[in-house]
Amino acid sequence: MWQFHNPVKIYFGNGKLEEITSILQGRCYAIVTYDHSYFDELASQIKAEAKGCAVVLNQVYENPDIADLAEICAAFEPYESQVEVLIALGGGSVIDTAKALAVAGSHPKIVQDILYHKQPIESALSIIAIPTTTGTGSEVTSWATLWDKERGTKYSLSSLKLYPEAALCDPDLTQALPQSITIQTGLDALSHAMESIWNKNRNPISLQFAKSAIELILQTLPALVNDLQNRELREKMMLGSLQAGLAFSNTKTSIAHNISYGITLDKNIPHGIACSFTLPMILRSFAESEGAVAQDLRRVFGADLVEASKKLGAWISELGVQIQPQDYGYDQREWESLVTEALSGERGQNFLGDSNVLQQLFQKQMKK
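That's the Phosphonoacetaldehyde reductase sequence above. Prediction below.
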């Protein structure tokens, strides 16, 4: 038996920012976004389009830390009683911060109690997500990634209440993305799609979204990197990211992401890089398998998964991304310890492959 659930209403297309008035339906709102002139301008566009903005909250940081929530919660407090919906305008860090704020309101301790003491999420403000990158997927998921650098760990705030009520996906909003962020977020989306295939929570619907996303991203991202102002490619990349988000919205991620959390904490490697450079080796680990996951991977990547792994590695390398753990400062002992710990983590336990085979492949890779 399987099930698929995603309640987010999706608005997709260039110029769709204009839909914000009809989505809001007269409600009082707060905008959560980055402290940057580009987002100041976008926030001004939204305020001009739709009446009822109480405040713009720009106390958002990359890889949002639990300790950072106090600042945005304090800024929100004077407006909390009147705000009915949050508009999350930005990339994954913005949308995840908005989800945390939706739960906490003006009380960051609520989130701490949920994450540290397993308290239930009682309520959350409605969220309208407007992604400005093509990789997060958070606009169609029911969780938020929060970091605790002091404790050296990563947490997921998770509840059906955290599905945004709407995702407004306007590819035009990604036109200003620099090459580095285009690559990083695109690789994150690829990882989301691939991770949903070798996942214990996989289902036929998530599989179709994943296949479509992988094919679109593999075709589009290299071309887009060399033609950043191409609107058609931006649209295709946003669609691929959205499809990947829909795929893993019902499966969560798996071993590549669980490995990546330690890499980001230890080496300060951007998330999209940290979660993607291991994908070729994980794909290779299914080469000798005849199971359902391996068969699905062959339908996407071809019959020979060893060759497919090499091609994927070359594809990532051509984007200027290194694919060897050594390139990120790991020796064999550190890497084996990291992978072992990741396999036992929550996302690592979603992995449907053979962990022994994967470990052996990583060992061989480190000895080259």
